[in-house]
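Supplementary notes for students who missed Thursday's class. We covered one full example, reproduced here. Read the sequence, then the structure, then the short commentary at the end.
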Amino acid sequence: MTNALTLPFWQLPQTDDLFVDTPPSHADVAVIGAGIAGLVTALNCAEDGTSVVVIERDAPGGGESGRTTAHLASALDDRYYELARLHGEDGARLAADSHAAAIDWIEAFTARHADHCGFRRVPGYLFTCRDDVRGLRSEAQAATKAGIDASFLEHGIPGLERLGPAVCFERQGRVDMGRLLATLLRACRAAGVIFFRGEAVDVQGGTPAQLRLASGTTITAGAVVVASNVPFHERVAIHTKQAPYRSYVVAGPVAAGSLPDALIWDDGDPYHYVRLAEDADGAPYVIVGGEDHKTGQSEDTESFPRLQQWAREHLPGVERFTHDWSGQILEPADGLAFIGADPGGEDNVYVITGDSGNGVTHGTLGGLLVADLIAGRSNPWAKLYAPDRKILKGIGEWMHENANVAAQYRDWAAPGDGDAQELAPGQGAVVRQGVHRIATYRDGDGTLHAFNARCPHLGCAVRWSPQEKSWDCPCHGSRFDARSGAVLNGPASAPLAAWEGKAD
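Structure (token representation):
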């Protein structure tokens, strides 16, 4: 089961012979999730000489790693002048160093393989949607102070000068995510990592820690790493400190040489981001993302058409669009990921979450950091990314996001969205019966699927996503399959409950 119905650009690796039939009863390290964070963690732990098992419920990259645009940036979305305010100048410098180290690690890793996984060093450019360029100048100065080779370009991006002044960040990167995942898998297997297909539903800390699967199987481990994008074993500890957003992407062929090979993004709200890629035959494609909104809090069906229109207006050489998809972004209240020891106090349990729109670099540095923590090595980034850190200077954002969450519970007093019997194939709606809200979906065969709309995580009422045709929780971002109610994204660890009565 994939986590959405739209079509990403990347070709995910074949895994016919990847999974073993029976998981080990014990491992030195158990990793939950075979995305970028889980695979980098597993590889580094295995290279330390430990036994490692990776638990994946679907397929490697089948979660958010397969839905990234794979911008490799040390120039972070949250701006270095803002990171310096929230974490101090030393913190901003460590953030820059850690993301640069993640890009360096990917470069060194891919250099050992014949095709380099499509890795390239490219510049990054930030341009403004405003008439005032003071924000660009401030970011160039703050990024330089943080140790990044950044400069303000009065005349704009070479080849796209019409977009206006910009900041240039040198030595950013891009990679083909499908090829990177496939190469990581091969390296993990060569290092002795075991892969098992199963759904983790609970984690208990201790010596050893315990991991329970939906099948009832329990695996013990010296350390458990929850690398499932969002922790499913914590009900509150992290979820109040980060907010889920949905981001949309389109891709299509572009005339060769019409666009600079670079990472490009603006400061709009919502903002846009652009990169080049190549298909299997080496033909150039452009990938354009943006139109973000909080998960479950928009029924707008025009996100993809707006992205296409924006691309045609701003980028020369765009021919047509062949792919569109969306992905989940977790925005921490203070701009940086949560990586390290479990904040709920579970001994020998570690988490990697809070990608903040920089999922590939956050996931990579997360794997490097957690492997160091498990091995008992010191790491200069540990305090900066500690999951139990206090959100002090980001308290305003924390209060805003949690007030937004509280407001979503008003759905329980709201009327339904329609009549289940009037749903056309492929449509979903939440209907009301007395005090109950029922999530109803009619599939392509005309069969009606109905579930209790209550999210099993913390009781918010799910809403219909017309783009991905899934049930999305507007509180903490859990997502569920329209036909089965199965979990697509955490933090929920249980499916939607089937509705036993009539849904009309």
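Commentary. The radius of gyration is 22 Å. The first helix runs from residue 36 to 47. If anything here is unclear, bring it to office hours.
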